[in-house]
Each structure stands twice: as C-alpha cells, then as structure tokens.
Known about the structure:
The chain is an alpha+beta fold and 440 residues long. It is built from 14 helices and twelve strands.
Amino acid sequence: MFGYYLDLALRSLKRNKVLTALMVLAIxxxxxxxxxxxxxxxxxxxxxxxxxxxxxxxPQVDPNPYTDGPSLPYDMMDYRxxxxxxxxxxxxxxxxxxxxxxxxTAPQVSLPPLMAQVLSTTSDFFPMFDVPFRYGRGWSAxxxxxxxxxxxxxxDLNDKxxxxxxxxxxxxxxxDSDVRIVGVLGAWRPSPQFYDVAxxxxxxxxxxxxxxxxxxxxxxxxxxxDIDPAGxxxxxxxxxxxxxxxxxxxxxxxxTLWVQLDSAAKVRxxxxxVAGYATQxxxxxxFARADNTQLRSLMGWLDFNHVVPSDVRLQMWLAFAFLLIxxxxxxxxxxAKFLSRAGEIGVRRxxxxxxxxxLAQCLFEAGLIGLLGGGGGLLLTxxxxxxxxxxxxxxxxxxxxxxxxxxxxxxxxxxxxxxxGLLPALRASRMALGLQLKIT
Length: 440
C-alpha cells in the first residue's frame, strides 16, 4: 500500500510541477524562518548545567536598613551578609562570587598589558559548577583561608599568553602583585553564563550579555581583595558610600552566593536558616525587613531574570506567524490541486476505492510535499543560523543546529503540510461521487 500511495503521489506531483514547486517553496520558507528562530530560542533557553541545576540555589536577603527600599531583595548581597552565610557552612557546597577588572601582564611574554576580567570566588566554585580543566586544578579551601596568590586562567587567555602550553606554575602579574597559575580551564561555555546573571528584570529585555564568555582570570576572593580592595564592580547602594569607605563595609551590594543543596530536606532547612539569619540581623538593627528573603533554584533564577533577550522572543513569534501565512497559502494550493483531480478521484471511487482510501492518499501526497519542504527548510535554516552567527551579539557563536532540532525540522514540516492538507483532503474525499464523475 505504501508503494502504491507513493507512486500515485509522485505521479500527481509531476503532473503539475509549478504548483508542486510553489507548495514546497511555501513550506520550506516557513520552516526555514521558524526553525532558525526556534533553534536560537532552544540554545538560549536551555539548562546551562544539566543534571546539576536542580541542586543549585541562589539565596537572597535584604540588607537595606530602611523600610522604603525595593519590595524584592537586591540581586546581590552586601559583603557582611554574604560572608556570614558562607562562613556558616550550612550547604553541601557554596561559592561567593564578585567581579572586577585588573591590569594583567605576564613576565617573559612580549604582549602589552591588558585589562583582564577577574572573577573572585571561593574554592567550591569549580566542583560545584562542574568546571572542566585543561591543565592543573582549582585552588583549595586552605588557599582561600591563607589568602594565597593563586589563579586559574581561561583557555583563551592561556592560548594568548602561552600559545596553549601547560602554564601551571608560571606567574602572571595582576596590578602590582605576582600570582601563580594553578589551573587552566578546558572548553567551558555555559549558556547563559548563569553564575553572573543579575539585574535582568531591569534590563528591558536587553539580556544578550548574559551569554558572554567566561572571565579571563579566576582567583580567591580574599586574594583579589588584598590586591585591589576597591576593584570590584558593585550592583547598587542603598545610600551614598563615603569616598574613603572600604567596599566591604560600604552600604552597597556587590557579592553573590551560590549554594549546592543535595536533597529537598536540605533545601527546606537552608531556607529556614536564611530566614533565621535575616530575623537575627533585624534584631541587631541591621535589616529593616526580615521577611524579605528568597531561595531560588538555578532555573528559577534565570526565569526571574528573563535571560532570553526580548528581541529573540519577538523574532520567534514573528517567524511562526510567517509560517502560519505559508500554511494558509499551502491550504489554498492543495485545495486547488485536489479539486482539479475530482474526475480522477471519482473514477477511483467508482472502481471501489473508499473515502478513507482517497483521504489517506491525499494526506500521503501532502506529507510528501512536507518532506520535500522540510529538506528545503533545512537548507534555509542552516543559512539563517549562519547569518545569526555573524551578528554582533554575545551568543552568536553558540547557535548551531543539534540532532534534536534537525529531526524537529522535518517533523514540523511534515506536521505542517498534513495540517494544511487535511481540509483539502476531506473536501476531495467527501465530494459526491456523481458530481466527481460528471466532472470527468
């Protein structure tokens, strides 16, 4: 039966090549546009840490001493709150994170000084986020405590400074201090760069920077604080800091804390711990609102920050609207095609073919058009993704078609064509036999 339907469909498609080409083109263009934007959406909205994201949480407290502050906690913490929660060691793993820039030079390397993006953190950062290493390893908790001048550098920086050689044990100079390299990252490109996400709700959908590359240098928070105490980026302040104030005691938020909690009971206990800490700080007169705390999961935190750029969402909906227009055009073309064959269908039914058989044959022909359109749509999708990769956006190099989206391209094309062919096929199969024979 499959061979018979295929033979009939091929004969029908060859009979009117122009009409067939128009239908295939309509499906291909619609699929190409929608799959291009859907693939970008798929890349940007995926889980950046599959298998681990369910155990990672982002605690928040409200260190603002005034009651007229924002209704939700700040996206970062002040240094004292973050250090208090981190020092309690109530999580399976935990990492403090702060950002800054430092001038970097490398002895015996003939390159001019460069401004390196520095991520200051604690030793659990690497095992907690499953960070791969090309050479060496991360530093230890003892290095955190000893304020050791050690660092892990990115693979890109290692290639730039040392041409990809094993640089473990070599020295780089950050500002005026020598720092020993203990590790070089392997290929690591989380999408988005989840541990840096903050302030997305204030970005008006302009969140493309969340998909940037990891920092050049990772080093202990205490060590980078010793090298440049004022060199950290702060998120915001609830009052004007003094010009000579230490950032660690300033009324500003600039540190984030990530925790790993391996069971639901630990999540519940940690949430109570954070609430208890805020209550204690309110009793001490430091917090105004003890009930303003949050403990969001990694994916919940990304959703809260609307990490997928708004223009990507808009493009996706516009592309699907375009696919819908292509679908309506295909319906019209298939309707004209099937009705023009009323005489042929009438003869088949007069010879014993059932309405179900006519319906199946028409849908088979529509599915074959969808398969051909899917092939064209795949080529247009690859072209669209190639153009996206040439856009000046942070996520451009991440956009590629994976196996799942490849299969979805053809599934969507066939489903679309079957949907478009359903009404014309029903119309052709249910036409009165006498009328069909009269047309003959």
